[in-house]
Design a protein that fits this description.
By secondary structure, the protein is an alpha/beta fold. The chain contains 15 helices and 14 strands.
């Protein structure tokens, strides 16, 4: 089915054609007509299948086709859990709307609020925001949503979990009751789905593939390794030149920094992405990874739902995630848009319960593998003075794997994950 068969406005079709793509992904083909008709929609599909375009294209169609004659006002609000995702969505919406005169702005923390206030007061027609900063500006009476027609919760499973739900409820209470509400995610548990009844009216459920199932194009492997040898095993595996663009997930911010120092000492160009990094540092780390200046990017879970980078060859779970949903989103950074990729997880003794839960959830076992030429009986490496001091500190290794984030994006691509679609469990103050 070509895009033109979905009923989109000719100016949007022109922008899509300029990208070189003619056929929508399954989630786009199923969701776009329902949204154009004005239905509330719950969209569920694997990471990397084009969910972002599945809601932005039909909303742009409706905004342009039903433009009011009165003064400009905010008509569409898109909420996302991390700054990475907000920036990414905004960049791609601009590309889709290149021939459509619609004012779009992004709202998130970590940067000056003055330009965001000006944009909101100027009546930006589409606002893409994290909940925390948006609530702050709403409290300053900077946002007018009396004319709002469309609400989107992107990454709905995280947006509606117990951390974000209070913030979402406060925002929704300030919106018109008569509106179109869309929820999109790669995962959506039945418990979370029950909460959507608060925000939607008779939604159409569009589900592509098994709920919460990892992408079939990703090869999943498990390496059983003593905890003290995980970084050494990563270094050993990186001797393989096929691991040329590697995203590594750690549980903590300090763990990410510690591994980065070890790789840098070996001459492996490495960047880090976590909550202790500034806005500019995060953007630079993503850009270096995207351009190939860094071979490895080490991140906490802020990146699981915000990175859209072409060609990631491997995702490595240096620390295995306890939540199935986090695993799905982590490994979804590779194998996107029908390309292939590898997901490697390091498993220690206390990870087996989480691994068994994951295997039951996806309905199959994950292949175990041993690294050839690696000494699994090696002693623990000596810590650097900095790491030894941190280990002795009462604050220890510090958390941070579940902080929100911000970050980059890239140009539009109708077939790609978060561009043409494609965790935080902190409070709903947005990141």
């Amino acid at each position: 089915m070509p895009f033109k068969a979905l009923g989109l406005h000719p100016l949007l079709l022109k922008a899509i054609q300029e990208t070189g793509y003619t056929e929508p992904t399954p989630i786009q083909a199923a969701a776009i007509p329902e949204i154009i008709l004005g239905h509330d929609v719950i969209g569920i599909a694997q990471t990397g299948t084009g969910k972002t375009a599945a809601f932005t294209l039909p909303l742009l169609h409706r905004l342009h086709s039903n433009a009011p004659a009165r003064a400009r006002m905010t008509r569409t609000l898109v909420l996302a859990p991390t700054r990475e995702l907000v920036v990414q969505i905004e960049e791609n919406v601009h590309a889709y709307a290149k021939h459509v005169p619609i004012h779009i702005t992004k709202v998130y923390g970590g940067v000056s609020e003055r330009p965001q206030i000006q944009a909101l007061r100027g009546g930006a027609e589409m606002v893409i925001a994290t909940p925390g900063r948006l609530l702050d500006l709403m409290g300053q009476r900077c946002a007018d949503f009396t004319g709002l027609e469309h609400l989107v919760l992107d990454e709905a499973d995280r947006m509606l979990d117990m951390g974000f739900l209070p913030a979402i409820r406060r925002i929704v209470q300030a919106l018109p009751k008569k509106r179109q509400t869309l929820l999109f995610s790669a995962t959506l548990s039945k418990e979370i789905e029950s909460l959507t009844h608060e925000f939607q009216h008779s939604p159409k459920v569009v589900q592509i593939g098994r709920r919460s199932n990892p992408a079939e194009t990703v090869t999943q492997l498990v390496y059983e390794v003593p905890r003290h040898l995980k970084t050494q095993l990563l270094c050993h595996l990186l001797n393989d030149p096929a691991m040329n663009m590697v995203l590594v997930f750690t549980r903590t911010k300090h763990g990410a920094d510690r591994v980065a120092r070890r790789l840098d000492a070996l001459g492996i160009k490495t960047g880090t992405l976590h909550a202790n990094r500034s806005q500019n540092q995060r953007l630079r780390a993503l850009e270096d990874f995207r351009s190939g200046a860094s071979r490895v990017l080490i991140a906490t879970d802020i990146a699981a739902r915000g990175i859209d980078v072409d060609g990631i060859s491997h995702v490595v779970n240096l620390d295995f995630p306890p939540q199935v949903e986090d695993y799905v989103h982590r490994i979804g950074r590779t194998g996107r848009a029908n390309s292939i990729g590898d997901a490697i997880s390091f498993i220690c003794e206390d990870d087996y319960g989480s691994l068994r839960s994951l295997e039951r959830f996806i309905g199959r076992g994950i292949v175990r593998k041993r690294a050839e030429g690696f000494d699994y009986n090696a002693p623990a490496p000596k810590l650097s003075p900095e790491d030894e001091e941190r280990r002795r500190s009462p604050r220890g290794g510090g958390g941070g794997g579940r902080s929100g984030g911000q970050g980059g994006g890239r140009g539009a691509d109708p077939r790609r994950g978060s561009s043409f679609g494609g965790g935080a469990r902190t409070g709903g103050r947005g990141r």
